Each structure stands twice: as C-alpha cells, then as structure tokens.
Amino acid sequence: MRIALFTETFLPKVDGIVTRLRHTVEHLQRRGNQVLVICPDGGLKEYKGAQIYGVSGVPLPLYPELKLALPRPTIGKVLEEFQPDLIHTVNPAVLGLGGIYYAKTMDLPLVASYHTHLPQYLQHYGLGALEGFLWSILRAAHNQANLNLCTSTAMVKELREQGIERVALWQRGVDTEMFQPHLTSAQMRWRLSQGHPESPLFIYVGRVSPEKQIEEIKPVLEAIPEARLAIVGDGPAREDLELHFAGTPTHFVGYLHGLELAVAYASADAFIFPSRTETLGLVLLEAMAAGCPVVAAASGGIMDIVTDGENGYLFDPLKPQSLITATQRLLAGKEEQEMLRQNARTEAERWSWAAATNQLQEYYQSVVAQESISEAA
Q1: 297 or 123, which is more confident?
Q2: Beta bridge partners of 87
Q3: Contact between residue 197 and residue 190 where contact means Cβ atoms under 8 Å apart
Q4: pLDDT digits (tens, 9 = 90+) for 51-103
Q5: Any idea which architecture 181-348 has in CATH?
Q6: What string of DSSP letters covers 177-216?
C-alpha cells in the first residue's frame, strides 16, 4: 500500500506525536508499504525508507518550536509522482488541510487522526473564548474523512459528542525494547538529582508548555521538602517555570533521547504528570515500560493507561491537595512501590508498536476497500 502522510509536526521536533509517527512510519515500511511524509521542513529527505517532502514554514508565535507550513501547489506534483492509495492527515490544522484538499481532488480515501486536544489548550493561552469556534473548524475538517482515529476511549467519546463522525480507536503503543526497568543507573540518578541520589527523585518528561500545567508540581515539593524534581524536555514555558520553581530543588535537564531517556525514567522514584489535556499521554507509557511508578491526573486518555493503586496513582485535577496526597501515598511503602513498578511494566508490555501499526493498516485496508465498493456502485 502507498500512503501519503500529512502532519503538522515531524522530526527533528521531539514530542509524543512525532514519537508515534516515527514508529508508525518504520513499521509500515517494514511491512512492505511505501510511505510519503509531507511535513514542515526539518532538513530530512528520508526516514527508515520513507520519502519526506518538507514544506518551508515560519515559527508559530505562541509556540516557536512548531512551524506553520502552508499547503502549496508543488505538493500536488509530489503526490502525482508518488501515486498514493490513501491519504492520512494527522491533526489537520494548516498543512493537514492540504491533505484533505488533495484527497478530494485526487478522489482518494482519507483517514484523519486526532492527537492534540487543541480546544482545551486554548484556555492555557488566554484564548478560551474561541473554543466553540475551534470545534466548528475541527468538525468541518474531520468530517471530510472516511475515518477519524483517536488514541484513547475518552477522546473517541468527546469527538462523537462534538459531532465528529466515523470515529474509531487507534490503540496505544510503546517501545518496550528501549524502555526497561533494568536500566536504572546510579550515575543518572546523581545527575538528575544534582548530586543528591539518596533523596526521593521525581521526574517530568514532555513539552515544557502552559497546557502541561507543570507549575502544579511545586506544592508537592513544598509538602515533601526532601524530594527533588527533574524536568526533562523543553518548550515555550521554560523561562517562566524556571522563575516559578526558583528556590526549589528542581533541575531543568533539557531534552534527553533514546537510551539516555530510558535510563532517566528507570532511575526515578516517580513520574509526575499533572497535565489534564492528554489525548493519550505517551510519556506515561514510556515511564511505565521503564518501571517508573506514575502519578497522573484522572483525565482524558490517561484513564485508559493508569489504574489507580495497581500500576500507578491518579489524582483529582479539581482538588490541588489530591496530587500531594497521591505522591505521598506512592512514597509511603517500598513494597507497594515495587508492586507498582512490576504492574506498570506488565501494562506497557501489552502495547507494542507492531500491534498498533497492524491495527492501523487494517483500518487503511478497510477504508480503501469501502471506497472501491462505493466507486463500483
């Protein structure tokens, strides 16, 4: 099968969407498919055998790490040469709208997928009044697709409630070969704790941006003064958060990749994730695969991953004290921590990237078959 994948973000950007797309492209290519990735230009021409067509763009004002790339006529020529069987547009917003356009003009089946809960993000950027308008745009875009995929049951439910049609679940995935509990390292623990490896060590991994609500971890540090926090990642809120956490034992590590990131997860005592805007929360699965117990908001896609008291702890995002209580509960018993580590790993092992991509290809084949039947009729 020949698949043209439109995405608003790809390598060298680092985030959960790019991680999912990297593994998806790799496994699709392994299965004998040919993939063309159309994305904002990041300097790459190829990835794991897939062709990359980069479209020049400008940094997004509210989020400079993201590039705003407008569709252009040259994309049509690239698609004509590639001759796709299907177009998949990821988070159609700007460049992804070009995927919708070319699917219609070239009479190709269209799959769209929803990964970023943009309507909730607006509240964290002072634009909450635009939420209804944004849903109307998303509805108009996604309802052009033959199939809309979400990465959690919570998002499937919400999109249906918002009037988006033909919605299905695209199962989660995680690299259980990369992220493993045995990678715990005294050297990494020393580095993340800034020379205090004996202290309880909390870790956050992900975008450092307003919608992740990282500032809500500060009261935990105040309630557990012997604990230390390592924030792994970067983003537009880093400068503000450095001021917010000034005077606390917080280390802004920056980006970690690959094995180094896996070692960081495995070396921490708890992964704290206050975000309540997650459609999936891939970093949670990575932490769990590494045997790192998680404390996360009982919200969105997280509810599909974390079972409270079994493989991590959930807290009520409407009750600030709840995060402190959940974290204290996790630290209270060593035996329970070990049980959480084992159960977290067991949960992660259920979700391989190969299985997730196999499911996606079945969706692709179904959509192509349905389109062929419609044309024949």
Answers
A1: 297
A2: 4, 110
A3: yes
A4: 999 999 988 776 677 788 999 999 999 999 999 999 999 999 899 999 999 99
A5: 3-Layer(aba) Sandwich (3.40)
A6: TTS-GGG--HHHHHHHTTS-TTS-EEEEES--SGGG-GGG
- CB-CB contact of 259 with 184 (8 Å): no
One CATH from 1.10.10.10, 3.40.50.300, 3.40.50.2000, 3.40.190.10 for 2-173+352-376: 3.40.50.2000
Q: Which residue, among 293, 303, 299, 302, has the nearest Cα to 346 in the 3D structure?
A: 293
How many Å apart are CA 74 and CA 72, to the nearest integer?
Answer: 6
* Average pLDDT in the chain: 92
Decide whether 2-173+352-376 matches 181-348 in CATH topology: yes
List the beta bridge partners of residue 67. 59
Q: How far is residue 274 from each of residues 87, 207, 335, measured CA to CA in Å? A: 35, 12, 25
**Torsion angle of the four alpha carbons 62, 153, 280, 362, in this order, in degrees rounded to the nearest 10:** -110
Domain ranges across the chain? 2-173+352-376, 181-348
Q: Specify the residue for token string 């040919």.
A: 34
Closest to 202 in 3D by CA, of 210, 214, 193:
193
